[in-house]
From TrEMBL:
Protein name, per record: Deoxyribose-phosphate aldolase
Catalytic activity: 2-deoxy-D-ribose 5-phosphate = D-glyceraldehyde 3-phosphate + acetaldehyde
Active site residues per record: 93 (proton donor/acceptor), 155 (schiff-base intermediate with acetaldehyde), 185 (proton donor/acceptor)
Lineage, top ranks: Bacteria, Bacillati, Actinomycetota, Actinomycetes, Mycobacteriales
Task performed by this protein: Catalyzes a reversible aldol reaction between acetaldehyde and D-glyceraldehyde 3-phosphate to generate 2-deoxy-D-ribose 5-phosphate.
Pfam family, one: DeoC
Keywords (A to Z) from UniProt: Cytoplasm, Lyase, Schiff base
Pathway(s): Carbohydrate degradation; 2-deoxy-D-ribose 1-phosphate degradation; D-glyceraldehyde 3-phosphate and acetaldehyde from 2-deoxy-alpha-D-ribose 1-phosphate: step 2/2
Enzyme class: lyase
GO molecular function, one term: deoxyribose-phosphate aldolase activity
Xref: InterPro entries: Aldolase_TIM, DeoC, DeoC/FbaB/LacD_aldolase, DeoC_typeI
EC number: 4.1.2.4
Organism encoding this protein: Corynebacterium vitaeruminis DSM 20294
Amino acid sequence: MSTSPLSRAELAHLIDHTLLAPEATPSQVEALIEEAVALGTYSVCISPSQLPVTVPDPLHVATVVGFPSGAVKAEVKAAETARAVKDGAEEIDMVINLAFAKEHKFADTEAEIAAVRAACPGKVLKVIIESAALTDEEIVGCCEAAERAGADFVKTSTGFHKAGGASVHAVELMSKTVAPRLGVKASGGIRDAATAQAMVAAGATRLGLSASAAILAGCEE
């Protein structure tokens, strides 16, 4: 966990600069990429329908699978993942089936994550658990399932669930459960520099942000 605030450049390198609004247009995606380059973010995260895109090095391309509800079959998520990889996605952010989590069917959670993992060999896999909708026990169970299934990150939220987005408590718990073996991505409702820095201090190693420019403007150089 971080013990002091990150510089603007350090924080930028943790950001997946995100545009997942369903009405987002290709021209808006192009503008997102240009802004990401100017800000120095790690990646852009866009809807799979917007792929493929061309980005300059070292910017990476992430997309979402089973988004935003997670309530589709594992084989559908796997097929969506395979197509996204074919279209150039380097990182996959998949949404779990929340019904499995709420019923503590963590073996089923593991199985669907494993199906997606098999569809994106060599790519970074992040598992969105919608932490605000889960109990602490369910958060831990989902994180442990993600680790068993070979994920690279666990991620707090889609940013679309009515329960809310990332919290410091959830990030701390997720980090305690899987770090440093897996990364932790905080996403959903992070709109200022202080909140972003608090997530990093709690153990986040990646941030999903749509307000990246405003957040970075509030950081020390």
